[in-house]
């Protein structure tokens, strides 16, 4: 597989201190949060964690991609939501890996149209393009 080439329009910059048990902030100060491992992984769970941040970014990005697709298809996605569930766990090789479940609720279209829209959005979304072939990503209509 070849590496995708892009014409960069924007670069986000974030810096972490103390890894999964510290702080992460963007260079513009718009995001500055404490991160802690979740209780399920032996942490305090007091702050957010990288998986929550990834889920937030993926769901927002996927919703945007859904909008792009819907405009092209003249589909009404008003009132729609996209939820990303990001799981983390041990891999067979001994490291850690992620998996994602994307669940979209699109109340103003039928189930078949909703399924078609999310499959097309999955081809447009930069997060989907970045994860494709690397981790398990499941798509579902709520």
TrEMBL record:
<dbReference type="Pfam" id="PF02566">
    <property type="entry name" value="OsmC"/>
</dbReference>
<dbReference type="InterPro" id="IPR036102">
    <property type="entry name" value="OsmC/Ohrsf"/>
</dbReference>
<dbReference type="InterPro" id="IPR003718">
    <property type="entry name" value="OsmC/Ohr_fam"/>
</dbReference>
<dbReference type="InterPro" id="IPR015946">
    <property type="entry name" value="KH_dom-like_a/b"/>
</dbReference>
<dbReference type="InterPro" id="IPR019953">
    <property type="entry name" value="OHR"/>
</dbReference>
<protein>
    <submittedName>
        <fullName>Organic hydroperoxide resistance protein</fullName>
    </submittedName>
</protein>
<comment type="similarity">
    <text>Belongs to the OsmC/Ohr family.</text>
</comment>
């Amino acid at each position: 597989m070849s590496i995708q080439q892009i014409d960069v329009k924007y670069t986000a910059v974030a810096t972490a201190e103390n890894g999964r048990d510290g702080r992460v902030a963007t260079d513009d100060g718009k995001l500055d949060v404490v991160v802690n491992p979740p209780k399920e992984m032996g942490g305090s769970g007091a702050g957010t964690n990288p998986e929550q941040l990834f889920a937030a970014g993926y769901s927002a990005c996927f919703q945007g991609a859904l909008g792009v697709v819907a405009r092209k298809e003249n589909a009404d996605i008003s009132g729609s939501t996209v939820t990303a569930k990001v799981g983390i766990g041990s891999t067979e090789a001994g490291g850690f890996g992620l998996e994602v479940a994307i669940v979209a609720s699109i109340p103003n279209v039928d189930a078949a149209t909703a399924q078609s829209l999310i499959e097309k959005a999955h081809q447009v979304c930069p997060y989907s393009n970045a994860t494709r072939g690397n981790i398990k990503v499941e798509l579902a209509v709520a």
